[in-house]
Amino acid sequence: MFDSKSLSRMNCLLPFATLILLSAVTEGALKMDLTDDNTFATINHSSILIDHLQDLLYNSNSSDVMLKVYTGNSDEVKVFHAHHLLLILQSDVFEELLLNQSVTTLVLRETAECAALFEKLLRYLYCGEITILLNQAVPLHRLASKYHVGALQQGIIEYMSQQLARASPRGHVVSWYHYSLRIGDENLQERCKQFLAWNMSTVIHSKEWQTTSDDLMIALLQRSDLVVENELEIYYGVEEWIRRNQPDIMVAETVLKSIRYTMISPQHLFYIQKKSSIMNEHYSSIHNLFFLAFQFHSTTPPVFAKYFNVNCSLFIPRNYLSSSWGSQWVINNPVRDDRSTSFQTQLAPNNYDASKKVTWNALFSPRWLPVSVRPSYTYSGYGAARAFSPEDSRPRIIITPSTNSVSFAGVNFQKTILVRVKQDGRSYVKHIYDFHQSTEETGDFLLQADLQKPSSEYLIDKSLHLHIIIKPIYQSLIKAIK
Prior knowledge:
Elements lengths: L3 H7 L3 H13 L19 H12 L7 E7 L5 E6 L1 H7 L1 H6 L7 E6 L1 H5 L1 H10 L9 H10 L3 H13 L10 H11 L2 H13 L1 H4 L10 H8 L5 E2 L2 H15 L3 H9 L8 H10 L1 H21 L3 H5 L13 E2 L5 E7 L6 E8 L10 E12 L25 E8 L9 E13 L2 E10 L23 E2 L2 E12 L8
Parallel strand pairs: 1-3, 4-5
Antiparallel strand pairs: 1-2, 6-13, 7-8, 8-9, 10-11, 10-13, 12-13
Helix pairs in contact: 2-3, 3-7, 8-9, 10-11, 15-17, 16-17
Keywords: Signal
Organism: Scyliorhinus torazame (Cloudy catshark)
InterPro entries: BACK, BTB-POZ/Galectin-3-binding, BTB/POZ_dom, SKP1/BTB/POZ_sf, TRAF_BTBD17
């Protein structure tokens, strides 16, 4: 673990470490795990050792190095009494700073946020454990990164990934995305973007919407998996963002061009065209999209597709929550038995087909057994068949139209299921499943959800909260990239 150079620097401190270990071994109850022949045993006093190390952190009498942590360029200073050995064991940065064993004082400068949390960093170096709050994640990660405490860095990133849904006064997901971009953590970036996209209807009306950077705004609007009431909600959110942030012309026009105007009704398009000051300012660069949208609404999509290229994002619906696109489905006590529901959606998003509706039937089965794990029955002389384990079964949803119709010609329907869960009293979309007829196609529908457990995050007031969305997708759009 250590090279000869490190061992020589640590040699004078080994008696100190030995005293700690001896003290840990001689205190507390003996915990032994014996094998069958009683030959070997495990003596575990690690918790006592951690207690001793924690005591050392607050015992200045035994320290051999002093850390003076200044806040920025000010004279404000915090003094910590530490131990040379423990610092260099946990951080190669401290090892370099303490290369000379005669060093007894280190002067460090940190930002105000980091200086306030420096004691937490020390506690982690001594005990391997700290408590953390949402607003402490970024400054603690900066400290862990600066002093090369890799395990703490990774632990904080994992904490951030798991706390995206946690409620906070001004929101934190956007700021965490911007931070992950600066440190180059692509996994956290994608998790933040996915959370923002799948809960966009909530984010648009939150305080953190206005803190969204130009690049993040453009990246979000290019996605087809945004969950919103309708496309109009996105437009008004973008309009307010432009009004508050005043981006340069190129950014504003790029953002406005990312709106899918074909998914907005002609009545609302006319209103935006005449009443929106933001649209009036940038209309010269957007007017061709408005013209295309009005043409799209004037005929059926298959006819429109004969003259225009519809294989682009402008004609791909997002995850719209309005009743014309689907229905919410709240299933009380979902493990009890099979459930079914019916609802209507529009045949197509264009105004020409506005009066045409499709009725859908949905069936939820809590304990469906996939074909791949169904037992092959072999009969013995007594006629018995091998039973299957309940753990092999899983939930499934099948969605089919109530009747077939020639008016479906040229149209395929993508079904989308949104699954809401609850964390910290806040409901949010955790999963999105896309399929043609059955969730069996996805292979992982609610695979990790423990619907039997009353405290399951998937049960909100003892009910499973789903939202079904039906998206008309035309033949040339089936393979379109999101």
